[in-house]
């Protein structure tokens, strides 16, 4: 599609969708001068060609004559060979125009693609915030191992705390002395001695009442 076709299609779309069609205006296509010098045996021999920049030409973002001259001149070889023996300047000019426009468009496409890839990369990076790690057999086994280890450590800690509480409770409770310990401390039989000290009268009275 040539430049004229693109402009025409854009104008038609804008007339149908005046509010929906938006976008930045493209920079004007580059202007180039084709210098043609005819040899004496033209058109049996091709003309001598050169591509020049117009005086005071505005620099173009995607085209530079100093850098693109050789490539564009080489792109005219097939057209020249196809038209040897006949007038060929018009065909050469048309081919040069199309090739220059294609060169500019390819460079625009490269930039557009780079912007799209950068936007997709930024979007993918942003989406990582909303997605967890994908579960695989390897990641599950690793998680399970860590989970079981954490549960075992927690169980051991709780058991240690429980034993510490029991130990603390036993320390506060007075220990019950064995019979030997009571005897050694002179406490064994003390109750009997106290009974022997009771008044005899009281005992006899208890005996009488019991009879």
From TrEMBL:
Regions of compositional bias (Basic and acidic residues) in chain numbering: 1-13, 159-175, 202-211
Highest taxon in the source lineage: Eukaryota
Residue ranges, annotated region (Disordered): 1-29, 159-211
A Pfam family matched in the record: RWD
Annotated ranges, domain RWD: 1-103
Stated name of the protein: RWD domain-containing protein
Species per Swiss-Prot/TrEMBL record: Gibberella intermedia
């Amino acid at each position: 599609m040539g430049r004229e076709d693109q402009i025409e299609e854009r104008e038609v779309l804008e007339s149908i969708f005046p509010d929906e069609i938006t976008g930045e205006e493209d920079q004007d296509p580059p202007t180039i001068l084709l210098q043609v010098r005819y040899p004496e045996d033209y058109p049996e021999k091709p003309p001598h060609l050169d591509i020049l920049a117009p005086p005071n030409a505005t620099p173009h973002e995607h085209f530079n004559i100093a850098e693109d001259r050789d490539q564009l001149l080489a792109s005219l070889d097939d057209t020249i060979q196809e038209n040897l023996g006949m007038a060929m300047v018009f065909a050469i000019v048309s081919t040069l125009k199309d090739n220059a426009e294609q060169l500019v468009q390819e460079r625009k496409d490269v930039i557009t693609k780079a912007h799209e890839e950068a936007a997709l990369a930024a979007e993918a990076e942003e989406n990582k915030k909303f997605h967890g790690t994908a579960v695989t057999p390897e990641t599950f086994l690793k998680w399970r191992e860590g989970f079981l280890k954490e549960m075992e450590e927690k169980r051991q800690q709780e058991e240690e705390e429980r034993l510490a509480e029991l130990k603390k409770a036993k320390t506060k409770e007075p220990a019950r002395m064995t019979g030997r310990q009571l005897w050694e401390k002179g406490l064994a039989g003390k109750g009997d001695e106290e009974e022997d000290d009771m008044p005899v009268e009281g005992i006899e009275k208890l005996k009488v009442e019991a009879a």
